[in-house]
Design goal:
about 120 residues; mainly alpha; 4 helices
């Protein structure tokens, strides 16, 4: 099921979402201050390509001081908009029974979009 889900996901928007994350990450890496955020955006873009069959894993150092600071900055500057996008698409997908698995993936990615530092999709 995850192979079929990932193929359908890529065809109907997952590829574009992943590329958008990666382009945003590369543009953030242009500045020295934005490098950690750009690398995390690129990581999120790669995770967005194939979300089926994966779960959000919290790393042991997820609640470190630096991770919390980066998560707060990310949340205020980037995360709320990306998470809102995943929320809207998840709600739209949840309208139909066929869209429920895709809505679940959007809600999973919404967690990563809000607080990406110290978490990964694997």
């Amino acid at each position: 099921m995850s192979l079929v889900g990932n193929i359908i996901w890529l065809i109907f928007g997952g590829f574009i979402s992943g590329v958008a994350y990666i382009i945003g990450g590369i543009s953030l890496c242009i500045t020295i201050i934005g490098i950690p955020f750009g690398l995390k955006a690129i990581d999120l873009g790669l995770s967005t390509f194939l979300p089926f069959g994966k779960e959000v894993i919290e790393k042991p150092a997820a609640n470190s001081t630096l991770g919390m600071i980066f998560n707060i900055i990310w949340l205020v500057v980037f995360g709320w908009g990306i998470a809102l996008n995943h929320l809207v698409w998840g709600l739209i997908m949840a309208i139909t029974i066929v869209g429920l698995p895709f809505a679940r993936q959007h809600f999973k990615l919404m967690i990563l979009a809000l607080l990406p530092f110290g978490r990964e999709l694997s």
